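User: Hey, my collaborator sent me this sequence without any context and asked if I could get a structure. I don't really work with proteins. Can you help?
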Amino acid sequence: MSKVHQLDLFTLIDPKPKPPIKAVPILNGLYYERSTGLFVTYVQGRRHFEVSTGQCLGDKARKEKTMRERAI
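Assistant: No problem. I've predicted the 3D structure and written it out in structure-token form, which is a compact way to encode the shape of the chain:
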């Protein structure tokens, strides 16, 4: 018969835990991509659809606001 070993669970815990890794935000919605000059939609972090500035629907002010505030 094997001997029973008692474990001390507190010795298994790292006394100096590492700081949490900063998570990269998951993109959702319409963004303006500076490198290509396209409006790009993302769904749960995955690139879904691309459209040029001329094809993007909406008025000029809305496009400019998106280009300023949601540029990646």
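In plain terms: The mean pLDDT is 85. You can pass these tokens on to your collaborator as they are.
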